[in-house]
Amino acid sequence: MVRVRYLLLLYALFLACKPSFARAPYAMRISCGARDDVHSTPTNTPWNKDFAYTGGIPGNATRPSFISPSLNTLRYFPLSEGPENCYNINRVPRGHYLVRIYFGLVAEPSFDNEPLFDVSIEGTLVYSLQSGWSTQDNERVFVEALIFLKDGTASLCFHSTGHGDPAILAIEILQIGNRAYYFGKGYGQGTIFRTDRRFNCGAEKPKFGADLSADSWGGDRFWNSLPTFGQNSDRVISTDNKIKGTSQSPNFYPEALYQTALISTNSQADLAYTIEVEPTRNYSIWLHFAEIDPSITKANQRVFDILLNGDVAFPDVDIVGMAGDINSALVLNTTVVVSGRTLTITLHPTKGTHAIISAIELFELVLAESKTLPAEIRALRRLKSALGLPLRFGWNGDPCVPEQHPWSGVDCLYDRNISKHAIDGLGLDNQGLRGFLPDDISQLRHLQSINLSGNSISGFIPSSLGTIISMEILDLSFNFFNGSIPESLGQLTSLQRLNLNSNSLKGKVPAALGGRLLHGASFNFTDNAGLCGFPGLPACGRLSIGAKIGIGLSSCVAFVLIVTCFVCWWKRRQSVLRAQRIAARDAPYAKARTHFNRDVQMTRHHNHEHARTAAESGPSLLA
Ligand SMILES: *[C@@H]1O[C@H](CO)[C@@H](O)[C@H](O)[C@H]1NC(C)=O
Ligand SMILES: *[C@@H]1O[C@H](CO)[C@@H](O)[C@H](O)[C@H]1NC(C)=O
Ligand SMILES: *[C@@H]1O[C@H](CO)[C@@H](O)[C@H](O)[C@H]1NC(C)=O
Ligand SMILES: *[C@@H]1O[C@H](CO)[C@@H](O)[C@H](O)[C@H]1NC(C)=O
Ligand SMILES: *[C@@H]1O[C@H](CO)[C@@H](O)[C@H](O)[C@H]1NC(C)=O
Ligand SMILES: *[C@@H]1O[C@H](CO)[C@@H](O)[C@H](O)[C@H]1NC(C)=O
Ligand SMILES: *[C@@H]1O[C@H](CO)[C@@H](O)[C@H](O)[C@H]1NC(C)=O
């Protein structure tokens, strides 16, 4: 019995632990423009049907290069749909990712030009397409970046630069190790690696990780082939021996990478390779070695220096000494600032032997931009829908970053205190906007100016505007705002300019605004339905419309009452006179008395009726 329980406990423990070592990395692959899930040949890789895009048009694709996955569709983004377009993929687990975006070519004769555009990932500009990317066998048919995704989403945006419509063939978001490509100080703290190149030295053909039976935690990296450094400087060497230290955390380099290498033909001669790069950028360089040359059997037999643009980066590299054995992987990495357009890697033998190298990786180190405050992005999105912003505005991705491509009509500031961007200006004047101004525009807490002049916006001016204390300029002129000016605007103590002219506003202008006049603020309230109570505007009547009606009614009642009284008094007087005349002649006294009584009663009855009417309208008189 005890033993059974023990076994059950063990089994439970096994179940609890199993997922941690059996867990596959998160992988999301999207075939852009595809209506159904598809598989690409020859690896039978599954691709999701198209989703998570902000707009654009699905189309048929020509495959720009053999490197591109064999997919037939793409999504392209005409400028009429706005300059900024994105894929926003949600529910991405927090982690470290290899994000790869394949560019597309629309399969239509009218689209013969290759589009050039900018690509940003999580608000950071990572790549600008260079002309010639779609020429035969160019390796630049995708952009790849290694990035930490922390907020559960991956936002990939494509920014038009006026050279054709951005077109995207496919997207891959592949999880890699949390310490992958750890490079020391600054790692993971707002830095992104943009993969510039990967070479497998001595390989005949370019290959993906999947072709090299690599671990999926490696992110299915693409290794281009580099059969020679040129100028007969080297030859290929390869082995079938097992290589130690491969396919290991955190980078899971495939073993095959180290089974081929380039080795210099002349001892003493340098082995050098020059790569074209973007000037004045920081590059991270990863060099791979394994001693697979059978003529080397122990440490200190092959020693060389590694120079980057002439400066020694790694002195006295002894592969066997450093890796601990022959057929054992050695990876070296360093970061350099490259000022010119080229980066030359030189292996300089120091012990009279040949130099050898297995693979080269080059990354551009990009500083990640800080995104805009999420509450402000939400407020702008609601404004976008409340004003029915036309498609041409785009307004996709992040409003402020990349700094090269902010949303049109939005001005940003960087708040150093919280390391976030915020919105300090909205300029949407004369854009033919309709709709209304939502209350939560006040979430744009850093706003200093709003210009919505010359649109067809209607409804009330939200009183929450009065809580944006930094507001200096508010121009809502030439719209259809109605109702009254909210009292809260009087709280805007920095207000310099308030243009509300040409709207349908009425009622009293908040008295507190008068105080701003002393500070040189200017206001324009002309051409409205009826504003009052401000210098330059009519004085407001003290009474409300209700009160005016009340007074009117009460006056009528009083008038009727007075007339009635007068009539009664006159009638009574006539009766009395008549009675006196009759009495003076021959009629008995009693008869005259009866007449007199009846007249008095009638008069009383009348008075009573009128008094009640007056009492009913009484409250409005008081109001
Ligand atoms: C794409 O190609 C298919 C046939 O291959 C065709 O039926 C379809 O209309 C094309 N779509 C577009 C948008 O051109
Ligand atoms: C890269 O180099 C740094 C120091 O230059 C080192 O701390 C780090 O461990 C290296 N990364 C890997 C994965 O070897
Ligand atoms: C390159 O790195 C240096 C030192 O880390 C830094 O000061 C500089 O701003 C970086 N340059 C670029 C273009 O990222
Ligand atoms: C940042 O903080 C300082 C001091 O706390 C303050 O003076 C400054 O106004 C703040 N800046 C912004 C943009 O909020
Ligand atoms: C707002 O835009 C209108 C139209 O473009 C312009 O005439 C006006 O000067 C702007 N208002 C302010 C306060 O700058
Ligand atoms: C103000 O304009 C809105 C939208 O046109 C309308 O629904 C509302 O009745 C108007 N309010 C007043 C007080 O005129
Ligand atoms: C106020 O606005 C009206 C148009 O509605 C314009 O004619 C007038 O010049 C403006 N006044 C000032 C002082 O800007």
UniProtKB/TrEMBL annotation:
Spell out the subcellular localization from the entry. Membrane
For the region Disordered, what residue ranges are annotated?
600-623
Record-annotated Malectin-like domain positions: 30-364
Question: What's a single GO MF annotation on this record?
Answer: kinase activity
Indicate the transmembrane segments per the record. Answer: 549-570
* Record's keyword terms, sorted: Kinase, Membrane, Receptor, Signal, Transferase, Transmembrane, Transmembrane helix
InterPro entries (UniProt xref) = Leu-rich_rpt, LRR_dom_sf, Malectin-like_Carb-bd_dom
> What membrane topology is given?
Single-pass membrane protein
Listed GO CC annotations? membrane
Do the record's keywords include Membrane?
A: yes
The record, for SUPFAM superfamilies, names:
L domain-like
Signal peptide as annotated in the record: 1-22
Q: What is this protein called?
A: Putative LRR receptor-like serine/threonine-protein kinase-like
What organism is the protein native to? Dorcoceras hygrometricum
